[in-house]
Amino acid sequence: MKAVVKWTDGVQFLAESGSGHAIVVDGPPEKGGRNTGPRPMELLLMGLGSCSSFDVIGILQKSRQDISDCYVEIAAERADTVPSLFTKIHLHFVIKGRSVKEAHVKRAVELSAEKYCSASIMLAAGGVEISHDYEIIEL
């Protein structure tokens, strides 16, 4: 896996993945940015949420759960000192569907956190306290 990050101006960068997809990364105006894209640490949270959601959806589909929507709300805390590392991250999954069994959702979230989500496991190994919960909305 590879990526290229090119400085464009101020604290703005163009990040391109090995698969050819690009995103603008920028800082806030008070740090010289123009607010044209997410911050680097926001990208880490988005990557974590995407990685874990990918697992949860796949596991639920394999267990033949009739899901029509899934999203994850992520809240994080950072240290007050430099480097301001993540100290705690909480992922709240919202699963929408018909007759979705709670046991299947619980298992999918646990498997993602403990076995499949590389981003989550890597952050936890680095000392970040990661927690998860979920809710099911019946349609």
Describe this structure in a few short sentences.
The protein has three helices and six strands; from the N terminus they run E-E-E-H-E-E-H-H-E.
How does this model look, in words?
The chain is α+β, with helices and mostly antiparallel strands. It has 2 domains: 1-38, N-terminal domain of TfIIb (Single Sheet), CATH 2.20.25; 40-138, 2-Layer Sandwich (GMP Synthetase, Chain A, domain 3), CATH 3.30.300. 33% of the residues lie in helices and 38% in strands. The chain has 3 helices and 6 strands. The chain has helices at 40-62, 102-116, 118-125; strands at residues 3-9, 12-17, 22-25, 66-78, 86-98, 129-138. Strands 1-2-3 form a 3-stranded antiparallel sheet, with no helix packed on it. Strands 4-5-6 form a 3-stranded mixed sheet, covered by helices on one side. β4 and β5 form a beta hairpin. The longest helix has 23 residues, at 40-62. The radius of gyration is 17 Å and the shape is elongated. The model has no long low-confidence stretch (mean pLDDT 97).
